[in-house]
Model the fold of this input.
Amino acid sequence: MKLKLNSVHKGVGYTFLVCFVWVLTACTKEAYDPAEIPDIPQAENAVEVEQELMGVVNAHRISLGYSSLQYSPIAHDYANKHNDYMIAQGDLSHDNFSARASGIASEVNAEYVAENVAKDYDTAEEAFQGWLNSSSHKKTMEDEFTHTAVSVKKDANGDFYFTQLFYR
Done:
């Protein structure tokens, strides 16, 4: 069956199509591009706290019969950038996680990426206990990952920000 449209119907259809496309593009959230983030000051890493936290997480995993996680410099770079972002925002967040996960996945061919973040703990042990007391964070630490990295940085007020990324 063929339907013949006159010029009025074509005009209405065209107008509808233009409006529909405009609504779709107007409501679409912009994609996150890390290169477009304005220069965020980089805080200095608390390397000893990072190493201690990674050691505590690995000791916990081993105590449960899981394998130790290998350090990933690529994940560390992404964790550092996220800590700098959170410090600049002044708040704890998982903002732009999908971009971090995609970046890590493409650079190391990871099939699964996860992260834990924390703030306002004074030691690696306190941050670890906070994650351990949260079912979702605990699950992440105990999941079947192969690699990890921890970034720990202090803001201008001396408050620690923690980001640990995991992948397999």
About this structure: The chain has a mean pLDDT of 83. The first strand starts at residue 70 and ends at 71.
